[in-house]
Amino acid sequence: MESPKKIAHEIGGVKRDALRFGLNGVKSDIVGSHPLESSYQSGKRSEEEMKRRIIGHTYGSALPLKMDMDRQILSRFQRPAGPIPSSMLGLEAYTGAIDDIGFEDYLNDPRDSETFKPVDFHHGMEVRLGISKGPVAPSFM
């Protein structure tokens, strides 16, 4: 018995779908982040690691593991893709990021921009469920 011929095709298998998300910018692939930004991120990681070590030495090794599990649980809790974005308020309160003032707090929220493309609900859910691949939605035109 001969198997039927199939065309090798994967839904959304292209990393960057030009029809859904527009043309890919080359600059973002070539140029890395700003040196100050990478220094800030590495300092933040080392500070968190130091805090984990101190908590582990003070309260025992089980508490940092419990804190990691709580962080993973809170980072998974999200709204479905749609017009209302997930605020991740529980995770922000748990990590202390709720006290930080970012640019979106004193400037406009990027989602209020005129060039912001709304999220395609169906594609966002396909990506989340693993049916389709690629970014959930483009951020700007």
Automatic annotation (TrEMBL):
PANTHER family according to UniProt: PROTEASOME MATURATION PROTEIN, PROTEASOME MATURATION PROTEIN UMP1
Pfam families linked: UMP1
Family label: Belongs to the POMP/UMP1 family.
Stated name of the protein: Proteasome maturation factor UMP1
Keywords: Chaperone
